[in-house]
Specification:
Blueprint (H helix, E strand, L loop, with lengths): L4 H6 L4 E2 L3 H19 L2 H4 L4 H6 L2 E2 L4 E2 L3 E3 L5 E3 L4 E2 L3 E4 L4 E3 L4 E2 L4 E3 L1 E3 L3 H5 L2 E4 L2 E3 L4 E2 L4 E3 L3 E2 L4 E2 L4 E2 L7 E4 L4 E7 L2
Parallel strand pairs: 2-5, 3-6, 4-7, 5-8, 6-9, 7-10, 8-13, 9-14, 10-15, 13-16, 14-17, 15-18, 17-19
Antiparallel strand pairs: 1-12, 11-12, 19-20
Length: 188
Amino acid sequence: MGKSERDKMAAGEWYSCLDPEFDEMRNAARVAVHSHNTMHPEERGSMAPQLRALFAEIADGVVIEAPFHCSYGINIRLGSGVYLNAGCTILDSGSVRIGARSMLGPGVHIYCAEHHKDPVSRAKGLEVAWPVEIGEDVWIGGGAIILGGVMIGNGGLVGAGAVVTKDVPPGATVAGNPARQIAGARAT
């Protein structure tokens, strides 16, 4: 018996996102996200209980502002004290790890999926999922986009509006589209 589409996704192989199992998973995420985004802030606290239950791992002190969106939630791991400002989107077909005390500004987007370049294969829903790893004490400015397969080292700083397509060394500052290291600049 062959691998399921979910097994292929987890293994970093091409899979069809049109598989009915993914529809169920995305629907569970939609329900949890809706709960988080519509719950009164005094009831929700730092995160709606349904959203907390959806994630793979949540440490103490995590705050996720509303609105927030994720595609599955089950591949997201957040370290202690992580802060996601309003409007953050994590399309977590791959593993997304965000280290302790890292902060994402408003409207930061993380995209793990790469869709097939061939139009016939793309129409069949073929994509591959790449992980994203964000180290500890990272600051990502508002509106930045982090693409799949990227690792941002501890203490890194990503400028607002940057499109990060390559790894960011620890302590480095990157900005622009595509993001490039700013000579002499260091995150503090």
